[in-house]
């Protein structure tokens, strides 16, 4: 788990824009942290938990917006990005292709994205669709972390067993495992760790920017 000397405080979280094209994303150079996962993985609940706003991801999403790229401005300094989910049950071929294009173009082309949080349902054994997606991220050199959701839905022993099994499968193909976080939107487990991880990256980016300006 990642820790910092202080906890990041979310003072403001504001919906900015929804769109279906990476070219229409905000033009600012602020860092972006994107969240993605299969449907019903608890993404909206996690976003609302992290921002301490139970209505943020829902009040900003009229029907259909979950099929778009949603930007939220946090503390006026960085963007939290809610991406469409992968795993397209109940969608026709045309919709699937559109969603794949939206997701792929953002992840591969959006230079402002500094980390992608991949949400995994901690209640289940490793799913092929999640493992394939993570493998694709690795092949394309995408910086990412893993967030195990719904930790409160299983007994502690089962939770640890499921997480360990997932990590074991990853180690079969990865020399180094990306940062992993265990979370619960109900109990706020993992909130401090994820926010401090983001804060740490923001701090590193700020120092790099200051160094470049000095040069």
Q: Any overview of this molecule?
A:
The protein has a single domain, classed as Rossmann fold, CATH 3.40.50. The chain is globular and about 50 Å long. Helices cover 38% and strands 20% of the residues. The chain is an alpha/beta fold and 215 residues long. Strands 1-3-4-2-5-6-7 form a seven-stranded mixed beta sheet, with helices on both faces. The N and C termini lie far apart (34 Å). The N terminus is likely disordered. It is built from six helices and seven strands.
Kindly report the CATH topology: Rossmann fold
Per CATH, the class reads: Alpha Beta
Radius of gyration: 17 Å
Strand content: 15-25%
Count, helices: 6
Main sheet overview = 7 strands, mixed
Helix/strand structural class:
alpha/beta
Outline the low-pLDDT stretches: 1-5, 59-65
Head-to-tail CA distance between termini: 34 Å
Estimate nothing, just give the exact number of structural domains: 1
Q: CATH superfamily, called what? A: P-loop containing nucleotide triphosphate hydrolases
Produce the secondary structure layout.
Blueprint (H helix, E strand, L loop, with lengths): L12 E7 L12 E6 L5 H9 L4 H4 L9 E6 L3 E5 L10 H17 L3 E9 L6 H12 L4 E6 L6 H16 L8 E3 L8 H24 L1
Parallel strand pairs: 2-4, 2-5, 5-6, 6-7
Antiparallel strand pairs: 1-3, 3-4
Observed structural traits:
215 residues, alpha/beta, Rossmann fold, 7-stranded mixed sheet, disordered N terminus
Structure, briefly:
The protein is built from six helices and seven strands; from the N terminus they run E-E-H-H-E-E-H-E-H-E-H-E-H.
């Amino acid at each position: 788990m990642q820790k910092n000397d202080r906890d990041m405080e979310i003072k403001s979280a504001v919906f900015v824009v929804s769109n279906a094209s990476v070219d229409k994303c905000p033009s600012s150079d602020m860092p972006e942290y994107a969240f993605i996962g299969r449907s019903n993985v608890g993404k909206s609940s996690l976003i609302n938990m992290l921002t301490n706003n139970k209505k943020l991801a829902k009040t900003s999403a009229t029907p259909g917006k979950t099929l778009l790229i949603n930007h939220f401005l946090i503390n006026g300094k960085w963007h939290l990005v809610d991406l469409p989910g992968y795993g397209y049950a109940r969608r026709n071929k045309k919709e699937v292709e559109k969603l794949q294009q939206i997701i792929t173009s953002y992840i591969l082309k959006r230079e402002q994205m500094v980390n992608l949080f991949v949400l995994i349902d901690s209640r289940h054994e490793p799913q092929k669709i999640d493992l394939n997606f993570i493998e694709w991220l690795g092949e394309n050199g995408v910086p990412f972390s893993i967030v195990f959701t719904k930790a409160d839905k299983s007994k502690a022993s089962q939770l640890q067993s499921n997480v360990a099994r997932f990590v074991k499968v990853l180690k079969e193909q990865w020399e180094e495992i990306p940062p992993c976080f265990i979370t619960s939107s109900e109990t706020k487990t993992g909130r401090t760790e994820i926010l401090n991880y983001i804060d740490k990256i923001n701090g590193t980016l700020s120092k790099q920017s200051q160094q470049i300006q000095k040069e």
